[in-house]
Each structure stands twice: as C-alpha cells, then as structure tokens.
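Subject: Re: docking follow-up (pyridoxal-5'-phosphate)

Dear J.,

Thanks for your patience while I sorted out the input files. As discussed at Tuesday's group meeting, I've set up the holo structure prediction with pyridoxal-5'-phosphate included as the bound ligand rather than trying to dock it afterwards. The sequence and the ligand SMILES I used are pasted below, so you can double-check that they match what you have on your end before we go further.
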Amino acid sequence: MPQIKFYSRPAVPMEMHKVKIVQQLNLLPIRERLAKIKEAGFNTFMLHNKDIFLDMLTDSGVNAMSDNMQAAMLRADDAYAGSETFFRMRDKLEEIFGIANVLPAHQGRACEHIIAQHFVKPDSVAIMNYHFTTSKAHVTRLGGRVEELIKDEGLVTKSDLPFKGDIDLDKVRACIEKEGVENISYLRLEAGTNLIGGQPMSYENMKAATDLAREYGITTILDASLLQDNLYFIKVREESMKDKSIREITRMIADLFDIVYFSARKFGFARGGAILVRDEALFHEMEDLVTMFEGFLTYGGMSVKEMEAMIVGFDESMDMDVISQGPQFINHCVNALDSLGVPVVTPAGGLGAHIDARQLMSHIPAEQYPAGALTAALYLCGGIRGMERGTMSEERNADGSERIASVEMIRLAFPRRVFTLSQTEYVIDRVKWLCDHKDLIGGLRFVHEPKTLRFFTGKLEPIGDWPEKLMEAYIRDFGEDQ
Ligand SMILES: Cc1ncc(COP(=O)(O)O)c(C=O)c1O
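The structure tokens for the complex came back this morning:
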C-alpha cells in the first residue's frame, strides 16, 4: 500500500480495514498490576489475559481474522480422514508456493519437531541465519548443534541496513568445510528473522545461500512463519524486486527451497502449520511422523475450521494492502521511540518494535536479565505485555553457567490488524516514561527455573524492592487509578 497522502495533517499509517467486532479491554489500577506481576513470577507469559491492557506478547495466533475468513469457517468439512478442507488447503498452498506435497501440523514447532526428527543426528550441525527458540530446542534435544551464521552487521542494533537477516555466505562455506558436508543436517533460513527484531532477508541473499547449499548437496529449508512481513520488505526495499507482484516474489522464493514450513499462527492469520516438501520420496518418508505426533494426514492436529480460515488468510497474505499495515505501524512506533531517545532496533522490521535493553539498562548485569526486568516493568507501568527476548530466553550452558544472548531485547509485537494508532501512541508514551525512569528498575533472579524453554513457565523475583519504588514514581505522575 502506498503511504496515503494528507492535506493538513502529518501523514500517519492508515488501516485498510474497518473494525466489525471488538473485545473490551481492561486497565487495572497500578497497585493491582503489581500484585498480578508478583503472582506471575515477574514473567509476562504467566499473566492472565484479563489483567492485561495491551497484549503485545506475540503475533502468534492472535492476529485479527477478516470477515471472509470467518465466513469460510462455516463450510469446514469435518472428517478424520479425507476432509475436502484439507484438499482445498493443499491446492491453495500449491497455487502460491508451487509445491504439491503438504504435511499438516498443529503449529510451527510441530513442523520443526518433524523436520528435526527426520534430519538431525547426534553431533550434526544445522546451519541457520539465526535461531528461533523452538527451532533450536528441537535440534539440541536430538544431540545436534545450531550454527548461526548471520552477517555481523545483522546484530548491530542501530543500523540502516535494509536486510539485517541476511546470512554470511563466507561463514556458511567455512562452516561446511570445517564440519564436513556429511555432518550438516540442513540449511534453515528464517524469513523475517524473529529474534533479531523481525529483520528481513533479501531475495538475493536467499538465492545465493541456497545455491551454495545445493553445490554441496545440503537440504535447504525455509521457515516461512514470518514470510508475510519479509515479502513486504523485499517489495519496498529490494530494488530489483520492486516491479514484481507479491505472488511472483513468493513463488521465486519458494522455488529456491527443498522444504518450506510455517506456523499458520502467523502466516495465514489463523492457528496451525504445514510442511511443504518438494521431493515426493522425502515427503512419504516424513508422513509417518505426522500420523505419529500430529494426527491423520488430512488434518495434522488442526481444527478444520481453522484450516478453512487459513486458506482465505493465505490469499490475504498475498495482498500488499493487507501486509503493509503491520510494518507501517511498527515503523511509526519505532521512529517515534527513536526520536524520543529510546534505543530501538532500526531499521524497523516486521513483527514488532524491539527495544535494546542491553543499552537502555546497562546498570543491570546480563545475569540479572535486563530485558526481563524491563518487560515486567512495562506491564507494571502501563499494563502493556511485551516479551523478553534475550538471556532469559536462552538455555544454560552444559556446565550450568548462563549463556549470555547476543541480543538483549524487549519485543512489543503488533499482532496483525489488531491495534489502533491511538493505542500505539499510548505504548510510545509509556515506554518513554519508563526510559526516563530506567534507573529505578533493578534485576531479577529465578526462583523456579525449568531446564528447557525456561522463559515460558519460569518464575522470578526482583532483586530488591525496585517494583514498589517504580510504582510510587508512576503514581506521582499518573495517579492511582491507571
Ligand atoms: C520464525 C518462527 N518459527 C517458528 C515459530 C514457532 O511457531 P509456533 O509458535 O506456531 O510453534 C515461530 C513462533 O513464534 C517463529 O516466529
């Protein structure tokens, strides 16, 4: 969508949809929020949704459906085996990606489970531009290793590089030569690279990396969960692609890969997932894992209603008016925070606005989870639920020491088509207030620490009484009732 021009007002991003159904929000007074975050062990995953004002935890499974998606759910063909809904979904995916072999799975990590189970051997190496929490955990669970070979510039927070998700081709070649091609399980490229700030990959880089893998006979896999945002950025930032349609770009990308998988909690605006496998023999080899872990081959653990919605959602993901909204709102938020002096990841990516907690909270040691503390503080001071993406989201080293994350961020996700511009302005305002009161925020330590994916269900406590002091400062500025 081109930016709509304004006559007498500064231009702002415009929604190309209108609201037809709403959900009432609830802003608890701050003293109640303090009690809730304590109960949640200072982990925003453990909060109840009813106690949250703006839920910016994730874009996963919380995107707004369109009227057409809702309508499509009514024609779902419920059957354990042979559902027409599945065949409609398969045909739509083939139309868009050009791959006819579709394995359904209940969400993105279920696809990763099946892929890892098939390809990962003990001590093998999965090469990635960057890991995602679940994609890495499935590899390490099976005794494999992940090598993240993103270009060095991709990890520089403040930058004007248009494609910070690009993989470093020299590092890829060196890794293959060092590890030996027989020890490489696959090359996985993640579109819209989540953990470095929803940063896109260029088509040019995807092509070069997959060409290189093919030279060695290495299987190439695209994680297309965040492809929608990446497509937008390729269209607007990659000069050689600007005249191509979103459908053409999608097909050109898919043609590079042996396997494409995605979480339909993101791609397709619904809830589910799928693995598209180019090679027929490989597809049949992987089928058994679907029936064992997910369900029969024509539903894979998904509700058929969601599958019908998804079919429409896939088409909507090919519409520039639809896919522009998220990145343009995020850009508005990131640019505003940047101009207010808040350290944010630039250029703005997809998925959400990302605040650099390492820089902002330099007074908190990495082992006391600065991004986790900032995330808890933002819920306290505004009722906004973000997600820690840093050391808390890592797993410890084998010797029990902390693995310090290369990036330490709080992510404020913008679920697609959900928030308005006034809500975005409120977020900007409360983040700026916190930034100006950052010295009041202290660290956290675990009181209950699960071994795997500890950030989901772990519980922490504050080091000192900083939450109370922060709350008093907030009350002085905004009063007791908000
Ligand atoms: C890039 C990427 N891959 C995989 C996943 C896992 O998908 P799911 O949450 O549906 O299991 C996610 C989820 O956030 C993701 O962002």
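A couple of observations from a first look. The chain has two domains: 30-59+323-478, 67-316. The chain has a mean pLDDT of 97.

Let me know if you'd like me to rerun anything.

Best regards,
T.
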